[in-house]
Design goal:
The chain is an alpha+beta fold. 49% of the residues lie in helices and 19% in strands. It has 8 helices and 14 strands. Strands 4-3-7-6-5 form a 5-stranded antiparallel β-sheet. The chain crosses the membrane at residues 161-180.
Length: 434
């Protein structure tokens, strides 16, 4: 930032300085030319044709430098067929008349015709009364004084603009360093968090960086929640696997006759436990993804086809909003709907009805069956891991627990009621709309 600012300041000041130099140099040169113009006008006003047909002045010119040899101020009047009339200051030199010049108005130009002395010449072609001759009036002055003024101007401009550039760059440097100071404070706070001294950025910050600090603290809190959830999942999984492993170890130690059946049964339980905790971990990992979205109707159709193959005698009907979309990963949505519809088909009397609707900022999915239902006092406990009210049918009691955990992770909910239409159980799943 400092380098770019310094480069930009230098470019702007250089451009401005060159433009100002041209303007002021032109003004000084114009002022110098005005002096030559005054002298040339005085020469023309004083000139007349003498008896011999030559030009003469009816009054002497006021500037004494015309009388001093090599004084730096000269005049000359020339015409074709006439001898040049020169000022004494020219001594044995003469101004060169350019044949291509026929200046009806005042014309000024630079010349190097005298070695070691640059000249500024102003000339004009005049026809005097009483003569048809075209006389070239010329006045010349050494450029040394003019060049000295321009050099002094450029030196002043260079020093002034250099000082201005230095001041602006120093000011930009101080402003940048001061402006970025809060970021260095944030970096020091992060170092303290990394070394374990602090867990959050608590030092007061300016309003410009406060939103970043708040987002950083929110990110740290989110990561801590995810780490705590991961530790909880690991502990729950270890606890869930401990009992089946103990049963298998006891059966193997006792060399039980039904060891094979025991291993298969307990391994199935462990696999469902692992699936349950993997589903929770996957949902937690995807929870913060803003692009997570799934079409409810497409997921319902896929689950209906899968469950229909498992329970061909069950009729599954669906109705409602076919355009509803939820802010949930498709795999997690399939997991929740699969558990609900499979349970309805497994424990129902042969009819399952699913309805999709929008309720405010949520999408509500209702799954009803015509089974025996669940007593009100058991509807909360049934969502706990491993709870089964009907042990006569295969299962591990983890399906509804997965539905509840994944729905809550995404900011949704699940509840149970009695179905008024089918007479069995009604499960109401609510998920945030996308």
């Amino acid at each position: 930032m400092i380098g770019i600012a310094a480069l930009w300041i230098s470019v702007l000041l250089l451009g401005g300085g060159l433009a100002l130099d041209r303007v002021l140099s032109a003004a000084i040169t114009r002022n110098f030319d005005d002096g030559l113009n005054y002298v040339l006008t005085a020469m023309i006003a004083s000139a007349e044709i003498g008896p011999d047909g030559e030009v003469l002045f009816n009054r002497p010119l006021a500037d004494q430098r015309f009388l001093e040899p090599n004084s730096g101020l000269y005049y000359q009047i020339s015409a074709k067929g006439h001898e040049d009339w020169r000022s004494r200051s020219l001594w044995d030199r003469a101004l060169r008349v350019l044949p291509e010049h026929d200046d009806r108005t005042f014309h000024a130009y630079d010349s190097k015709q005298f070695p070691g002395e640059d000249l500024r010449i102003m000339e004009r072609t005049i026809v005097l009364p009483g003569s048809n001759t075209r006389w070239m009036f010329m006045v010349a002055a050494a450029r040394a004084g003019l060049d000295d003024q321009i050099r002094a101007l450029r030196s002043t401009l260079t020093q002034s603009f250099a000082l201005l550039a230095l001041g602006l760059i120093v000011l930009t440097t101080l402003q940048t360093l001061y402006g970025l100071r809060p970021l260095r404070r944030v970096r020091k706070e992060i170092v303290r968090m990394r070394t374990g001294e602090k867990s959050r950025v608590t030092e007061p910050m300016p309003a410009e960086v406060l939103p970043m600090v708040e987002e950083l603290n929110a990110l740290l809190a989110h990561n801590e929640r995810q780490a705590e959830e991961a530790r909880t999942h690991a502990g729950n999984l270890a606890h869930a696997l401990k009992t089946p492993l103990t049963v298998i170890m006891n059966a193997a130690t006792a060399q039980a006759a039904d060891l094979g059946e025991t291993v298969i049964r307990e391994a199935t339980t462990m696999r469902r436990q692992v699936d349950h905790h993997l589903a929770r971990a996957r949902a937690v990992g995807r929870r913060g993804a803003a692009q997570s979205r799934a079409e409810v109707w497409g997921s319902l159709q896929a689950v209906e086809r899968a469950v229909q193959r498992l329970y061909p005698e069950t009729r599954i009907d669906m109705d409602g909003d076919k355009e509803a979309t939820v802010r949930v990963e498709r795999q997690d949505l399939d997991e929740m709907l699969g558990n609900l519809i499979e349970n309805a088909a497994k424990y129902g009397g042969g009819s399952v009805f699913a309805t999709v609707s929008r309720v405010s900022a949520m999408v509500e999915i209702v799954v009803e069956d015509d089974g025996m239902g669940i007593p009100p006092e058991e509807r909360t406990r049934i969502f706990d891991r491993g709870v089964r009210l009907d042990s006569g049918k295969p299962g591990t009691g983890l399906g509804l627990a997965i539905v509840r955990d994944v729905a809550e992770i995404y900011g949704g909910s699940v509840g149970m009621e009695e179905s008024e239409d089918l007479g069995g159980l009604l499960v109401r799943l609510r998920l945030p709309a996308a």
